[in-house]
Amino acid transporter
Amino acid sequence: MSTTPSAGHHRLSGSLGVGAIVFMVVAAAAPLTVVAGTVPIGIAAGNGAAFPASYVVCTVVLLFFAVGFTTMARHVDAGGAFSTYVARGLGRPAGVGSAFLALVSYAAVQLAVYGFIGSAIDVLVTDHGGPDLPWGVWSVAVMVVVALLGYRHIELSGRVLGVLLVAEVAVVMVLNVVVVVRGGGDEGLASTALDPSAFTSGAPGIALIFAVAGYIGFEATAIFRNEARDPDRTIPRATYAALLLIGGFYALSAWALVSWWGDEGAVARAVADPGTMLGETATTVLGGFGGDVVEVLLVTSVFAAILAFHNVISRYLHTLGDPASEVAVLPAALGRAHEHHGSPHVASLTTSVIGAVLLALCLAFQLDPVLEVFTWFAAVSVVGLIALMLLTSVAVVAYFRRHPGLATPWQAVIAPAVAICGLAAFAWMTVDNLALLVGGSATVATCFKALLIGAFAAGLLLSLAVRRQAVPDPVPAPAQP
């Protein structure tokens, strides 16, 4: 099949470097939101003061995943990330199924953060004497801004995300440095995270689930391939940089939080009210101004995540409609790019419509923005994205087995095999505890499992139903190991 754009089709354009892509990927992880929300919950419901070590474990497993992922990136000259890689390794139907699974997973997590930001803005405004409006009003306002930015050139989003990311990371790093310089709280700097027996105490499985949730979106580096400068170098470097930055920042911040409160004190404080733990810590360590800054930047952190997720969803839709893509099964209009902005403008508008419909349904059913919208849909996205990484690792092994000589045994078999074992363990723990993650409802958990399986199956069946010219599996010249 020709890879030349059809009439009326315009390729995505951009010159994103490593830094810009890292900004978008790390912004999607919403580092301040994770430290303020996920870390206290992981301490309370997971393995207590040893929770910071969970980020080290997740980073190691995902680094093994990145070895095969980035090696294959050099041989797949197309966007689509997970879907394209799975298609090349396991066949087109599986690739389309993966694309649909990715769409559902990212749409779920975007909906989750729309609920969270609506609640967060409402709290921020009312705390400072503003009007008490329904949370949906704020969510819709954010959706409009995201739609405008998503329609424009990708580099505009990159600049916005860069500014917001630097601000939120900076305030937490200042807090971390002050805690370390002071030698921690009354008990000194914590060492429990270094104790293997402490790590396995409590509920380490729950701890790992909450930890891996903080990495959502890191693999999206490959989504921006068509808008990257020198993608063969940029994508691998951005992937490793994003992983190390995310993992290091989370581990350090969680450790500093435990160090300030002490082992038992951190658990007691997290259990009492996890949502205000970081804010109170910032107020105590940095003063009232520090607490106010954290409260404001928490909103901008969630906004940055929403914008990043919007860009990822838009590019999956663009890939599914792009006539040059091997997973194209949706209308070709989705594969068009704006003549001036070089953005997937049709796919971006479609993403906004999908988000608006989902948000309207949540408002119609009067779901709580945090306890239900955020918690439920964030949980289902974690399950879906872990499954996608597991499928991608299997696809990497299958691809290089068919094309020997393109990668070293370490890149083609050993590292992906280790990643498969680790990701399979994560998947089992997440699915096994999904009911707990959605408020203890087995019915809701079953519905979400069916949704994810149904999304993959729908893509697979649609791929089989849509007859088109078979896509050859291009075999590039052997690369130097």
Observations:
- The chain is about 70% helix and 0% strand.
- Residues 92-127 form the longest helix (36 residues).
- The two ends are 29 Å apart (CA to CA).
- Confidence is low (pLDDT under 50) at residues 1-10, 477-481.
